[in-house]
Structures are given as structure tokens and as C-alpha cells.
């Protein structure tokens, strides 16, 4: 069964001026239900993540100040959202959703969080609309409490997973792979275990060729027992922040490549949604919906 983390809280913690593209979470779940890709039985609503799991990944001082709404003004600017109790609660729910998705992926092969992908959050600060790093927190959960030995993070958001790379720098149990726009945010890149920076205007052909070349070799080299996949659709040519030139079909083929290689190796996959900022929100929703449709077809049917 496909299990999907979703909570209405994802869409309602922000003032109206900050809600786009948050509305995509709400519209995506409606679309998947409407077309019959999922039913209510597939959906679960996470609670807030326990503090012990936060502190396995994040600095105690940062967490105390974030939770107490006591960040410095420059730290709040770096995050990009106005700080509030509801925003912090939203982030805790997102992180618990990814932890639960990791558990469900062990049971069903794949599970997806409608939200997540907060890969710009460092251990001691937030950045780029990310307060707490859900993939890092869930990876540490598997390592510390579930006995996993080797984890691979596949981050195909158009922006480098800089926070994730920083958190796991020097950690041999987590291999971070980020394929992103070379000249896009963040201006100062961290060092992932494998970084592939793509030039502006990269098309389907070059992108998919690069992914097909590196991913199988990486899976064979790392030999992970679990995969986290950041599936941002800000690689689309229509994306306001992306700067690449991928089509809807190319984005769909990207997801298919990841899922099929993991399925062939019997690797459980936990998917976090990541970015998507095309002008037409319907295009963002359709691109994200393709990820869920492919997960259902490749792993569940």
C-alpha cells in the first residue's frame, strides 16, 4: 500500500503573502484523490516529531532559540518566513512525516511526504524556507534506532542540498548526492559526497544522460540499505527559480530512473517533495503528481 504523509497544517501557517507555493500541497492531495491514484486509506497525518529526534540532528542551542521564537533578526531573514509557533509546529510535523514515511518504506518499498525536502536547514541554523532538516533527521533515526548501516541521499532538487551535505560531512554511513543548478541558490555551496553542478539551460537529454551515467555506479559503489529521494520539480523550464530547461516528460523520466534502479535492487525509498515554483500552480501539481503515480506503479502495483 502506498502511504503518504499529509496534514492540512502544511498549507496554513503563513500570511497570505507567503502562501504561494504552499497551496500546492493542498491541491496535490486533492488531485491524487480525484483521479483515484490514492484513497483516504493511503493518507496519514503525522504528529509533531519528538524533541529527542530533533536533537539527534540539530544543535541544542539552535533548537531552544527556534522553539522559543528567539532567533536573531538576521537568522529569521535567512530562513525567509516570519517566525511563529505555528511555523515551528509545521516543521515538526513535516519532520515526523518523513520519519514515518521511512518506516512505511521499509514495509511497502516506498512512501512519500507531501511536503518535506527541507535540505537547506543546517544543524545550527535554518535557511531558504527550511528550519529543520527532515531527510537528515529521518536518516539519523534509521541509523541510531533501527540499526541501518549505509544510507544514500539522492537530492535532485534544482538547489544544492547544502544543509544535508553539511550535517553529514565526514559521516561514512550517509552518502550525499546532489545534482543541481551550478549557478543557482545557494551561492556558497557545501561539499556533498558527490556534487554535479549543471549549467543554466540544461535540457532533458543532457540531464537524463548524466543521471543514467552516475546513479547506477553510485548505487553499486555505496551499497546503501536505504534511500532518501528529494524529488523537487523546480528543474522544469517553467520554474521561476530553476534556470534549467527540463520538460514535464523529462522530469517524469527522472523520477522513473530513480525508482526503477532502487526497485531493481530492492531498496526502500522515502520521498520528500522539495521545490516547485512554476508560474502556473497546476503545472507544479502535475509534475509532483507524476512522482506519486510512478511510485504507485513501480513499487505497489
Automatic annotation (TrEMBL):
Keywords: Hydrolase. The keyword DNA damage does not apply. Gene3D superfamilies: Histone deacetylase domain (3.40.800.20). Pfam families: Hist_deacetyl. CDD domains: HDAC_classIV. Residues 19-290 form the Histone deacetylase domain. It comes from the Bacteria. PANTHER family: HISTONE DEACETYLASE 12 (PTHR10625:SF19), HISTONE DEACETYLASE HDAC1-RELATED (PTHR10625). Belongs to the histone deacetylase family. This is Histone deacetylase.
Amino acid at each position: 500500500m502506498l502511504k503518504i504523509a499529509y496534514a492540512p497544517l502544511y498549507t496554513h501557517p503563513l500570511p497570505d503573502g507567503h502562501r504561494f507555493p504552499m497551496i500546492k500541497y493542498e491541491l496535490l492531495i486533492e488531485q491524487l484523490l480525484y483521479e483515484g491514484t490514492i484513497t483516504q486509506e493511503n493518507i496519514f497525518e503525522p504528529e509533531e516529531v519528538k524533541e529527542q529526534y530533533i536533537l539527534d540532528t540539530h544543535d541544542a542551542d539552535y533548537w531552544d532559540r527556534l522553539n522559543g521564537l528567539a532567533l536573531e533578526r538576521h537568522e529569521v531573514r535567512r530562513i525567509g518566513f516570519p517566525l511563529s509557533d505555528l511555523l515551528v509546529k509545521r516543521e515538526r510535523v513535516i519532520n515526523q512525516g518523513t520519519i514515518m514515511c521511512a518506516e512505511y518504506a521499509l514495509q511497502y518499498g516506498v512512501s512519500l511526504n507531501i511536503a518535506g525536502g527541507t535540505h537547506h536547514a543546517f544543524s545550527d541554523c535554518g535557511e531558504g524556507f527550511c528550519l529543520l532538516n527532515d531527510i537528515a533527521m529521518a536518516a539519523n533515526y534509521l541509523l541510531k534506532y533501527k540499526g541501518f548501516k549505509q544510507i544514500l541521499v539522492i537530492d535532485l532538487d534544482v538547489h544544492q542540498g547544502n544543509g544535508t551535505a553539511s550535517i553529514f560531512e565526514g559521516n561514512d554511513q550517509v552518502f550525499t548526492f546532489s545534482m543541481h543548478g551550478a549557478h543557482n541558490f545557494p551561492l556558497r555551496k557545501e561539499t556533498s559526497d558527490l556534487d554535479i553542478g549543471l549549467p543554466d539551460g540544461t535540457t532533458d537529454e543532457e540531464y537524463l544522460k548524466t543521471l543514467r551515467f552516475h546513479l547506477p555506479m553510485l548505487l553499486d559503489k555505496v551499497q546503501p540499505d536505504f534511500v532518501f529521494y528529494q524529488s523537487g520539480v523546480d528543474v522544469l523550464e517553467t520554474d521561476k527559480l530553476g534556470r534549467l530547461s527540463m520538460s514535464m516528460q523529462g522530469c517524469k523520466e527522472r523520477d522513473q530512473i530513480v525508482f526503477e534502479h532502487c526497485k531493481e535492487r530492492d531498496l526502500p525509498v522515502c520521498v520528500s517533495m522539495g521545490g516547485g515554483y512554476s508560474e502556473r500552480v497546476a503545472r507544479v501539481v502535475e509534475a509532483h503528481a507524476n512522482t506519486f503515480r510512478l511510485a504507485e506503479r513501480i513499487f505497489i502495483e
